[in-house]
Amino acid sequence: MNKKLNIFQQVRELEGWYAVAFSATLLERMLPNYTLFCEVTEFADPAQYRKTLNSIWEWLAVPKAKINFAAQLEKVEELVPDASDFDNYGVYPAIDVAMSMSATILLIQEQDLQGAVVVSKLSQGGVEAFIEASSEQELEPQDIKQHPLMQWEIETQQELLILLNKSPKNAETCKKLKTLATTEGMSNIGIEI
């Protein structure tokens, strides 16, 4: 449990650009969950979420970029699935993506300075929920911590924190972060990209 607290504490200390970059990288790993949900249920066109995440990356890479994040937030919030409307598990990871996207935009707008912590917790929590939902038996907290997906999630967040700690705020760092997020070819819950 100590590692988990340690990560959240480190994320809490991220500020401004670094907090947004951390959030965008985790979102890049989570987005396929939303996309797959939309494709399977025909809930909505997932392209809007891709566009919004691309806008976040642009904001990070091009500091002078003019992006209307109030409008982006509105579009994101219009496309949040309601869990009570669906009977498949995929709605929950999709909601995590939507909440993470909103938290990241609010962070950019400086309306919620803990947005990166929200995204970190949603990403880890989503992995934990997925592990529990896909298990045949009741799992102990220790079993969840030792599950390969959870270990991968924690390692990825730690690697991300280390990378951000020694990287400048620029487009090159954004490329490295995107590579970190997509190199395994899987979302945070193991869905192939």
Structural class by helix and strand composition: mainly alpha
Oligomer classification:
single chain
Count of domain modules? 1
Total helix count? 9
- Inertia-based shape: globular
Estimated helix fraction: 55-70%
For the secondary structure, the number of strands is 0
CATH architecture field: Up-down Bundle
What is the alpha-carbon Rg in Å?
16 Å
Please report the first level of CATH classification, the CATH class: Mainly Alpha
Question: Which sequence of SSEs, written as H and E, runs from N to C?
Answer: HHHHHHHHH
- CATH H level, superfamily name: YP_001051499.1 domain like
Q: What is the average of the pLDDT values?
A: 95
Poorly predicted sequence stretches spanning 5 or more consecutive residues: none
Largest sheet data: none
Q: Could you characterize the architecture of this molecule?
A:
The protein is mainly α and 193 residues long. The protein has a single domain (2-182), classed as Up-down Bundle (YP_001051499.1 fold like). It is 70% helix and 0% strand. The chain contains 9 helices and no strands. The chain has helices at 2-12, 16-41, 47-61, 69-78, 91-108, 115-133, 141-146, 148-165, 171-182. α1 (2-12) packs antiparallel against α6. The longest helix has 26 residues, at 16-41. The mean pLDDT is 95. It holds the Pfam family DUF416. It comes from Paraglaciecola algarum. InterPro entries: DUF416 (IPR007338), YP001051499.1-like_dom_sf (IPR023381).
